[in-house]
User: What shape does this take?
Amino acid sequence: MPIPRILVVDDDPDMRQMMTQFLRQNGSIALPAANEAEVRTHIDGGRVDLVLLDVMLGDENGLEICKRLRREQEVPIVMVSALSADHQRMEGYAVGADDYVAKPFNPELLLARVKAVLSRTQRSASLVHRRNTKTFNFSGWFYDAKSGEVSSPSKVQVALSRRETALLQVLLANPHIPLTREEIAANLDVTGETQPPGETSGRAIDVLVGRLRNKIEANPKDPQILKTERGVGYVFAVDVAVSDA
Assistant: This one.
């Protein structure tokens, strides 16, 4: 499944940092923004799965930003505000917000609300994913999600372990997006397998990446597909073509 990319829009730097850090620790890619211009930059620059939008943004109005975004696209929007009266909540829903969370809030509650909105808005996509009917092509490689088969550009089938396959699935769902080791670990889904202690540590992810590189890179010491992103983690640095099997 793609790792959720959540845009956190708040003009308070402390609140913005707290929310982005918490979301990152819980398996999301959190992108900070302080105003509408930064919101536009993120949305124009890549996939955004949900926007957490403060109502009061200094000289800007979150409700007006929500209204403009809603006219242009269907990205889910959760309003976050200290204004929590019923009529203020209704104003948020009236301009197209999917949910409204009042400050101060319990971070765990915010996370639950975010997951609920993502679940509702991405249900059809996730059902397609669960049917495992997609095939992926990248740099001449072929991965069949239904059979689990991986074939090299020379049509040679390559065997991957469950964890190597899970890592490949995370990378294929997030091409060209730098991922931290924590984000990768939080999104590894190895069905029916219990994670031994330490298997999701940063070092364990490095070892797993090394094993996958040995199988899909022409030269694992100079990787061109699964690259190291300095100061971040790793990035799947090639285009991925997805089709239904």
Q: What stands out?
A: Residues 36 and 65 are 7 Å apart (CA to CA).
